[in-house]
Design brief:
Layout (H helix, E strand, L loop, with lengths): L2 H9 L2 H8 L5 H14 L5 E4 L20 E5 L5 H12 L1 H4 L1 E6 L2 E4 L3 E4 L9 E6 L1 H4 L5 H13 L1
Antiparallel strand pairs: 1-2, 2-6, 3-4, 3-6, 4-5
Length: 155
């Protein structure tokens, strides 16, 4: 890390610093996203994206998509597969570095658990999750991350 990066890290809000540094899907997020698609595409799950440089819908705060730490998986509306994906992400949140899940009018965070969700997009047709910075920026090799994710999604 350069001296300039160290100074910026102290001087800038962490979200702004993350926005300036990350402009693509991050390694840990991409590994988890790809494993979910591999495991559930035969049940109707489809990729809806990771990186999207935007604010939260209806708000003025940056989305975790804007820094490559969020994933969206399309599923049949209000489906059992959406319930399962959201449920396993919450159940394995610690192992998979998940800090937020939004699905079917509900939002889960590490701090609050499940609460009602009334955002602009109700997330009835896709599961959204966000990863921690630590998981998203894991320095583990890609193959190891993929095996880790697959293990915790299937056991």
């Amino acid at each position: 890390v350069s001296q300039i990066e160290k100074l910026l890290d102290v001087a800038l809000d962490k979200v702004v610093w993350e926005i300036l540094r990350h402009r693509k899907p991050r390694k840990g997020q991409k590994a988890l996203y790809d494993v979910i698609l591999f495991l559930f595409s035969d049940k109707g799950a489809r990729g809806a994206g990771i990186y999207n440089r935007r604010f939260q819908r209806g708000g003025s705060s940056w989305s975790t998509h804007a820094v490559g730490r969020a994933g969206d998986i399309w599923v049949p509306a209000r489906s059992a597969i959406g319930d399962w994906i959201a449920g396993i992400l919450v159940a394995r949140a610690e192992q998979l570095g998940v800090c937020e899940v939004i699905w079917n009018h509900k939002r889960w965070t590490v701090d609050t658990g499940w609460l009602g969700y009334n955002g602009v997009n109700k997330h009835e047709d896709h599961v959204h999750w966000s990863n921690t910075i630590g998981f998203a920026d894991s320095d583990s090799p890609r193959d190891d991350l993929t095996k880790w994710c697959a293990h915790h999604l299937t056991n």
